[in-house]
Amino acid sequence: MPSEQMVTILVVEDDPGHARLIERNLRYSNIANDIVKLTDGQQALDYLFGEGEYEGMRNYSSSLLVLLDLNLPVLDGFQVLKRMKSDDRTKHIPVIMVTSSDDTQDVSKCYELGCSVFLTKPLLDYEQFSEAIRKLGLFLSVVKVPQGG
To answer: pLDDT category, 59, cuts 50, 70, 90?
Structure first.
């Protein structure tokens, strides 16, 4: 039986409180995966493509799952998603949008660009947001993602 590589979860979220809440609730759902937290779109692309401060890391070949906010500094979530899905090295990586936007145009655009799931953060309700992330954690505990190449 081939051994499965543990999927690293890349959380791209500029609000440190939301990033902590996401990680805490994923852990609460018994997600033991490595979680890497980045705060802007350019950092995410540098991490994925082994550029900038991550030069030589080649993370696109790792087994990854990306939780991506839309409203990010430097490059927004649309730009990150578009670049990921247009590059053969990263197009296989599942991307879950975790954002405060519930605009139907944003939802449509993300799916057109290739996101796997669009999850709206209920900003004013801490418990509802926590519960949504715990459910996401349960989902992630059973989902299989493609191995990088």
So the answer is: low
